[in-house]
Amino acid sequence: MPYVSRDASGKVVGLSEAPVEEATESLPASHPDVLDFLFRDTAGDRASTRFLASDLGFIRVVEDLVAVLIEKRIIAFTDLPAAAQDKLLDRRSLRSYLSDVSGVFESGEGKII
């Protein structure tokens, strides 16, 4: 179990394998405070949040890539597994719906949605 050192607010700011003067508290590696420290980036934000945002953006790239491959007849939609077909159809339907309603709510300063 790692030993943690904390700042004045109680936030974990360091880990060590053995107890040292500033790190005498031992916590399991799966403890939320340890995980928060391990997945925090240098700006203090959780790296997992940045990965999630990146994943969401990348999903759109993959979705567009599949659409281009189908459009150019490099692959057939039916070549994809049924689960993938369902997900692509759901996403296409959702994107179509959102593009239809996004222009509905506009004000003088721009779109509200």
Q: What does it look like?
A:
- This protein is an alpha+beta fold and about 110 residues long.
- It has 2 domains: about 5-40, no CATH class; about 50-110, no CATH class.
- It contains 3 helices and 5 strands.
- The strands form 2 sheets. The chain has a 3-stranded antiparallel β-sheet with strand order 2-1-3, covered by helices on one side. A two-stranded antiparallel sheet has the order 4-5.
- A hairpin with a 5-residue loop joins strand 1 (about 5) and strand 2 (about 10-15).
- The relative contact order is 0.07.
- The mean pLDDT is about 80.
Describe the protein's topology:
Layout: E1 3-6, E2 12-16, E3 25-26, H1 32-38, H2 47-71, H3 82-102, E4 106-107, E5 110-111
Antiparallel strand pairs: 1-2, 1-3, 4-5
